[in-house]
Amino acid sequence: MIDAVMPTYARYDVTLERGEGVYAFSTDGRRFLDFGAGIAVASLGHCHPHLVDALKSQAETLWHCSNLYHIPGQERLAERLVSHTFADAVFFNNSGGEAVEMGFKMMRKYHAEAGHPERYRVISVEGAFHGRSLACISSGRQEKHTAGFGPLVDGFDQVAFGNMNEMRAAITPETAGIVIEPVQGEGGIRPVDADYLKELRAVADEFGILLMYDEVQCGIGRTGKLYAHEWSGAAPDILASAKGLGGGFPIGATLATEAVADAMKAGSHGSTFGGNPLAMAVGNAVLDVVLADGFMDNVTARAEQLANGLDALVKKYPDILAGHRGMGLMQGLQCQGENGENGTLVGKLMAGGLLTVPAGDNIVRMVPPLTIEATHVEEALSILDAAVGEMTTKAA
Prior knowledge:
With 396 residues, the chain is an alpha/beta fold. The protein folds into 2 domains: 16-34 and 293-395, Aspartate Aminotransferase, domain 1 (Alpha-Beta Complex); 50-290, Type I PLP-dependent aspartate aminotransferase-like (Major domain) (Aspartate Aminotransferase, domain 2). The chain has helices spanning 37-40, 49-59, 72-83, 96-113, 134-140, 143-146, 164-170, 194-207, 258-261, 277-290, 295-316, 341-351, 374-395, and strands spanning 16-20, 23-26, 31-34, 89-93, 121-125, 156-159, 175-180, 183-184, 190-191, 210-214, 238-241, 252-256, 321-327, 330-335, 354-355, 357-359, 363-366.
């Protein structure tokens, strides 16, 4: 007999019941240092006091009113995102997949309004993950996500990761734009070279197409800047944001320049729950913390500490670890082999009290709360050392 909860997840044998700061606690009394953070969602850790206060206050005032009416918290959050980014306008939705989907719609609408409805195709890069909707899996084109869901949605093309010659060759009179993650998450924690992003900006301008960044996972301070693309200086036309923006509360946002946003007329898009008062209260509280003086300095310092520690582990255990890569507090430790050794290591780390997340290319993904301190990094590295050491002993 099938479980009442649809069996779409291969869950670990752990039930988490509460969290406090950078730690999560299971029903059997175990404490875990949480370097998975709900897959980069709990950006400020668990039950951050400022977020809790904001949510409680709003919950006692107004939960929902729909976008038929003005929502002050929504207007404030939009204004703050606009003032700190490339964007001129923001649409709020409920998830990263929704934020990406709207970006695809905006690309088509922009060109249609400009008299070029034939420009509807979007180019992505190998290893991409943009969400689970039919359009999103069609853009990502990873077999593990598309199997059984064919035929894929038309309108998406893909080129090799980092190959500008292929990118240019793929652009046709039907191309509307390019979508890319400045740091691939599910694809294996692969940062995109800053020069490549600059070249994408230039080629988009050259061909009159739009450049969209998927910063659902790498945004909201994860790399030491509000959004990861800021390190390159290459601004997009559209950006999808979610995960860390809500610190654990469901929220998504699609940011755009005035030229793109102006194509979206009343009735062209909508969301029942998007931009609701509860989500907006928490989103504003997250920005209160992330945009505070000195916050990004801690992210950068802890990222350097973690990266140095991971490099040392790779040198210490070359038979088990193939390398490490990442950007900011979005780090990946690559295992040797091709048979899911990363899953084995994730399991051993969990047994040792450290939560991590597997990713593509045999990567163990570490996306801890941005509020971690030096002692937490030391604790994580100690657990990693013990777990990899155990794998080394068994391999011998």
